[in-house]
């Protein structure tokens, strides 16, 4: 059986034979598992690796496959699948073929298991209870299993029969592997239209294979859609993407796997980035290629790992998409959610829902760590003159401006879309009718027009102020903390777990004085600290930490609001 070093040597040879150039870098095992790119010698910058895009696995690669391309094309033309489904199916089939161009060298070098929650054991997964990822992963797993049973299994086995493998059975773990490979390694590649459509004029595509984006020249891993816990819906990984060709730049954004470059690991301050060369190879001397280049004024020492940044992502997104976390992640966030069904239980629910819809509000909000840089408690002594502004954005109405803008408003850390939505939700029945009365004045008096979003926001502010919204926010954050701590204890418990403490290291008196009985229970679970369990606890601890900080800010703001109103 070939050793890891033998496989790596064969893979590097395969890369070179197919035109991939390692310029002063090499692929080798990482200390913590898997593979990475490393500087071969002291390197003062420049191009480190070049990969022809013809070797990338993209939707075009799938449709041009010499064996099954026509079958993929038929499936694509039916319109029931998008490009992502097509590529995941391709990866699944190619790996099962074992002797294919991709499987023998490239796919054989890729991970067989992953650190994302989809791959957690039951014991590891239990550490996510109370977090957004717990329910999201359960739902995602359910959807993936349904998709596998209803479509993927039959399609994959049918395609394999076309290439002489009628007896190869595909199981769910095969599909989960292909799905994970795509979402952990695919890049959003800006290609020239002449590369994607070498003999065609600009077209509007029918399928979801192309996606408009704004390329900033930096390394860019494919990200989740714009909901997120922060940009992730956590519902399904087979989502449609925009079918757009950029008319201004003739750039087509294509998702794909680029062998070689996809071995770059993440660092928030990554010292390298990838870019795409033009049809003349003006930078790398390889036409239509992707090249890895050191950042400005960057040097690599010999044997230093060459990392790129996947973007400013919190641990929730990093764990969900890539299977790792960063301690004390400066890009962490928590999601605050108000369930729509809870709103239905209150009086005037329909009117509130209508007002929320008119203001185009969602019922999920992200609170990013950066918001804590401007805290209401530390700025509450500022004089009123320093904080005045036309906050309500309204003037000239008989009812506008009656409620004074609080002196702390400029230093309230919570986003205005969150506050405005919570003002709407927290209204009492009399408040709702008061708002409707003010808005009616606009349409029936001299203004004679339908209220705008800003009109509605201003009317709700005049009637309600901030107290109800801040009280609701305090309640939501308190509930979130209770959910996070149920079964796992406080942030201090998670810290102790990560430091390797156990009940044997606490005397009965220390347990009694330092921790409650409930909190001490967590130390009785002497389970091995696997990488996945570590990741889950780091993520969970970060969520508790942020929730507690934001709760303190909400409580301080509520106190100030009540003293004002």
Detailed description of the structure:
The chain contains 21 helices and 12 strands. It has 565 residues and is α+β, with helices and mostly antiparallel strands. It starts with a helix and ends with a helix.
Give me the secondary-structure topology.
Blueprint: H1 4-17, E1 21-22, E2 25-29, E3 35-39, E4 47-52, H2 59-63, H3 69-77, H4 83-97, H5 103-109, H6 122-125, H7 132-162, H8 172-185, E5 187-192, H9 193-196, E6 251-256, E7 265-266, E8 272-276, E9 289-294, E10 307-308, H10 315-321, E11 333-337, H11 340-343, H12 349-358, E12 364-368, H13 376-379, H14 416-426, H15 429-444, H16 453-464, H17 467-485, H18 491-498, H19 508-514, H20 517-521, H21 531-564
Parallel strand pairs: 7-10
Antiparallel strand pairs: 1-4, 2-3, 4-9, 5-6, 8-9, 11-12
């Amino acid at each position: 059986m070939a050793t890891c070093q033998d496989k790596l040597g064969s893979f590097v040879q395969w890369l070179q034979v197919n035109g991939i150039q390692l310029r002063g870098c090499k692929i080798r095992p990482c200390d913590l598992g898997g593979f990475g790119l490393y500087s071969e010698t002291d390197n003062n910058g420049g191009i480190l690796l070049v990969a022809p895009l013809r070797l990338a696995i993209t939707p075009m690669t799938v449709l041009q496959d010499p064996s099954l391309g026509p079958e993929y094309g038929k499936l694509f033309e039916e319109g029931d699948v998008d490009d992502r489904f097509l590529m995941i199916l391709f990866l699944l089939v190619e790996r099962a073929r074992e002797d294919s161009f991709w499987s023998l060298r490239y796919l054989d070098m890729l991970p067989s298991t992953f650190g994302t929650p989809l791959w957690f054991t039951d014991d590891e997964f239990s550490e996510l209870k109370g977090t957004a990822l717990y329910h999201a992963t359960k739902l995602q797993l359910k959807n993936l299993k349904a998709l596998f049973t209803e479509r993927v299994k039959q399609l994959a086995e049918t395609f394999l029969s076309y290439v002489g493998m009628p007896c190869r059975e595909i199981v769910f773990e095969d599909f989960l592997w292909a799905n994970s490979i795509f979402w952990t390694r695919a890049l959003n590649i800006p290609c020239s239209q002449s590369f994607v459509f070498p003999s065609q004029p600009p077209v509007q595509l029918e399928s979801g294979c192309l996606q408009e984006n704004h390329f900033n020249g930096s390394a860019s891993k494919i990200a989740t859609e714009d909901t997120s816990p922060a940009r992730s819906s956590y519902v399904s990984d087979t989502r449609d993407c925009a079918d757009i060709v950029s008319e201004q730049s003739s750039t087509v954004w294509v998702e794909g796997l680029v062998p070689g470059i996809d071995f770059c690991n993440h660092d928030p301050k990554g010292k390298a980035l990838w870019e795409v060369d033009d049809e003349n190879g003006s930078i790398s001397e390889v036409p239509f290629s992707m090249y890895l280049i050191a950042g400005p004024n960057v040097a690599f020492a010999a044997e230093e790992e060459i990392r790129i940044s996947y973007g400013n992502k919190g641990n929730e997104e990093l764990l969900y998409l890539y299977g790792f976390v960063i301690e004390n992640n400066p890009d962490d966030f928590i999601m605050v959610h108000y369930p729509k069904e809870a709103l239905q239980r209150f009086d005037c629910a329909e009117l509130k829902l209508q007002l929320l819809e008119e203001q185009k509000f969602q019922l999920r909000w992200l609170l990013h760590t950066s918001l804590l840089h401007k805290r209401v408690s530390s700025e509450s002594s500022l004089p009123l003159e320093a904080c005045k502004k036309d906050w309500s954005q309204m003037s000239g109405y008989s009812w506008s401006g009656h409620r004074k803008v609080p002196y702390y408003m400029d230093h309230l850390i919570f986003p205005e879309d969150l506050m405005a939505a919570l003002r709407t939700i927290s209204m009492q029945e009399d408040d709702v009718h008061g708002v409707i009365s003010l808005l009616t004045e606009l349409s029936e008096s001299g203004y004679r027009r339908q209220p705008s979003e800003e009109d509605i926001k201003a009317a709700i502010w005049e009637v309600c102020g901030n107290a109800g919204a801040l009280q609701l926010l305090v309640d939501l954050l308190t509930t979130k903390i209770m959910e996070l701590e149920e079964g796992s204890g406080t942030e201090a418990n998670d810290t102790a777990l990560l430091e390797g403490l156990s009940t044997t290291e606490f005397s009965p008196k220390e347990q009694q004085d330092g921790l409650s009985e409930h909190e001490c229970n967590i130390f009785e679970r002497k389970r091995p600290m696997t990488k996945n369990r570590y990741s889950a606890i780091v993520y969970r601890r970060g969520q508790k930490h942020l929730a507690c900080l934001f709760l303190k800010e909400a409580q301080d703001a509520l106190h100030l609001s009540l003293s004002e109103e």
